[in-house]
From TrEMBL:
One of its GO terms (biological process) is fatty acid metabolic process. One of its GO terms (cellular component) is mitochondrion. The lineage of its organism: Eukaryota, Metazoa, Ecdysozoa, Arthropoda, Hexapoda. GO terms for molecular function: flavin adenine dinucleotide binding; short-chain 2-methyl fatty acyl-CoA dehydrogenase activity. This is Short/branched chain specific acyl-CoA dehydrogenase, mitochondrial. It comes from Megaselia scalaris (Humpbacked fly). Pathway: Lipid metabolism; mitochondrial fatty acid beta-oxidation; Amino-acid degradation; L-isoleucine degradation. Its EC number is 1.3.8.5. The keyword Signal does not apply. The keyword Nucleus does not apply. Keywords: FAD, Fatty acid metabolism, Flavoprotein, Lipid metabolism, Oxidoreductase. It holds the Pfam family Acyl-CoA_dh_M. PROSITE patterns: ACYL_COA_DH_1, ACYL_COA_DH_2. Homotetramer.
Amino acid sequence: MKKVGNQAQKEKYLPKLAGEYAGSFALTEPTAGSDAFSLKTVAKKDGDDYIINGTKMFISNSDVAGVFLVFANAKPEAGYKGITTFIVDRDTPGFTVGKKENKLGIRASGTCMLHFDNVRVPKSNILGEFGHGYKYAAAYLNEGRIGIGAQMVGLAQGCFDATIPYLLERKQFGNDIYSFQSMQHQIATIATEIEAARLLTYNAARLKEAGVEFTKEAAMAKYYASEVAQRATIKCIDWMGGVGFTKDFPQEKFYRDCKIGAIYEGTTNMQLSTIAKYIRKEYSS
């Protein structure tokens, strides 16, 4: 909204988004996950308004959001180029938020379905340009992948930091278990992978801040950091032994929370496809 919203939209919503309530990005649908731009939610023009019908799925923060950026196709005959972004207030008639999903991890972030039943919004609630919703969604997701990379690095590092002191104290066969060479090699490998994921994430952020192309690097950061987070948390549970499998220690929560990194804002396979696409482009030019 800050980037492409008009002055009236910014004056109305940005102050509220600064503290009164959260916002939510509504793209994913039951039949449009990785193939996001095949979405079925439509917005039909009716005078100076648009009437939105459809369903969104797995929408983050939707349990507490006061305003939603809803991607709907306002010109289906144009394909994905008809996708337009609409600002929808939570209290708009016909708009309902479903129950919170009972998720494996990131449970502090509410995830719900959204239902649009003849939801009428004024033309003035179009965010940015008509038919540019797919561009805004792609740009948002590209930037967000850097954030997911950072999230996964933080989870991996946090789990690692919570585990190493235990390994230095826990004794078996007369020595702390950190002292065994096989343990040291595993620890060194995970520490190196975490650092590599961190540097990939920093590099993507550096490119974005410099205003140059960063799509491939953001995909690399998200893909690798999410894989490393899974490996790191699994290893930490292994190193902790039986206590790592209990809820008395934080390793199980790190493990549950990191799995989403390989799923949301583009699955691992989607990241690999993006990386390969840009490599082809680089070597074909």
